[in-house]
Amino acid sequence: MSKVYPDAAAALAGVLRDGMVVMAGGFGLCGIPQALIDAIRDSGVRNLTCISNNAGIDGVGLGVLLDTRQIRKMISSYVGENKTFMQQYLAGELEIEFNPQGTLAERIRAGGAGIPAFYTRTGVGTAIAEGKDEREFDGHRYIMERGLLADLAIVHAWRGDTEGNLVYRMTARNFNPVMASAAKMVVAQVEELVEPGVLDGDHIVTPGIFVKRIVHVPEVAKRIEQRTTRKRDAAPTPAAAGTDPLPA
User: 176, 247, 166: which is closest to 208 by C-alpha?
Assistant: First the structure.
């Protein structure tokens, strides 16, 4: 049976339901599965728990699901670019489980590896540690964190073949690969779709055994979350006619 579906809505058909846990890959606005996020919005499912490094920005990424109030809870690391997120949280309309970024990545990786929990020094002595089991190893205090699993992971890959083998590019490799191993159902959108055997086996990051459905999305907006540019150096003042230039 082919894993390739004609569009994002078809790739998610029969998968979505109210109250499910969804992992959404990407880092900031880089490598986000926007076509699949839009299809979730259009489906109308509600009360979602979303696991993602961030919540996008207003109107982009998971921000579109916040705009429609389809998310009940976010498990995230960084949410500072989304005003809608802030408004819903301060109004008590959105539940948040904050994680240090490395802890979030490890919780997802652990879930995919079948590790139910692990101990880390990150967060000891802070609000992050409240209510968590704490132990001492080799003279240092550690807190226990639980592994994370999802009903659905939606990921974005640069290249993929029709068997579901995926290759990521640069920053998009951050959270997409670990999420592709930590969900019951993995749906991938890929920019370049090729036949089996085209991809170099040494370059494949996510083996196709993890991926159940694929949608080809060749036209992807490459957004910049915060555009920062360096000021140009001032042009040197030209020397007056008939004068020698100053020595170097």
Answer: 166
CATH superfamily of 4-48+104-216: Glutaconate Coenzyme A-transferase (3.40.1080.10)
DSSP 89-150: HHTT-SEEEE--HHHHHHHHHHHHHT--EEEESTTTTSGGGTTS-EEEETTEEEEEEE---E
Residue 75 has a pLDDT of 96
Q: Which of 218, 174, 212 is nearest to 194 (CA)?
A: 218
Let me know: does 77 contact 101? Beta carbons within 8 Å: yes
Residue 213 CA, distance from chain mean position? 18
Domain ranges (residues) in the chain: 4-48+104-216
Gyration radius of the chain's alpha carbons:
22
Cα(225)–Cα(57) distance, integer angstroms:
8
| Structure letter (DSSP) for residue 122 | T
| pLDDT digits 0-9 by tens, 141-179 | 999 999 999 999 999 999 999 999 999 998 888 899 999
Number of H helices, E strands in the chain: 6, 12
Nearest Cα neighbor of 20 from 56, 53, 39, 45 is 45
Strand order in the sheet with 117-120: 117-120, 140-146, 134-137
Task: Report yes or no: 98 and 78 within 8 Å, Cβ to Cβ.
Answer: no
